Amino acid sequence: MIRILIALLLISLTVTAAACDTTTTETGVDAGAASDSSDEGAKPEPKLKHRLTCSYDLGEVGASGFENIRIIAGGELENTGNIGVVARVTFTWDMVGQADYKVRKTYRVKRGQTREVDYAEGVGQDFITAHQAGSQDCTARAKIVDTFGSAK
Hints:
Blueprint: H1 2-19, E1 22-28, E2 47-57, E3 60-62, E4 65-67, E5 70-79, E6 84-93, E7 101-109, E8 114-122, H2 125-133, E9 138-148
Antiparallel strand pairs: 1-2, 2-5, 3-4, 5-8, 6-7, 6-9
């Protein structure tokens, strides 16, 4: 009985994760990223968790089709390391017949802090048509590109 309940719970968690358009990842710093902390004190251990998602909103239907179409993205960056981090967030919308559309933004996240990330941009019907003709995928990634402050 317990095995059946565990199996059902695992299936439920798998289905929930597959239906969600959110990425959660913990990232360490790149080998090339700089740090302005001194050699004194704790060893810098930059870590970042991110829960990010992206999509699009068709807005309202007007006399000439959809109006107020926009792409939307957002989530949270959580610094779980012992030093401040600079994170580059990249949202990418898959497109057919043209290059994928990428938005990159850089955020500073203090040690032990969580930061909200939000993005919205108005787009036209041609954008949505090119996006829908493909896989309709949108990816969201965050990468530590630098550190700041001192490790504690």
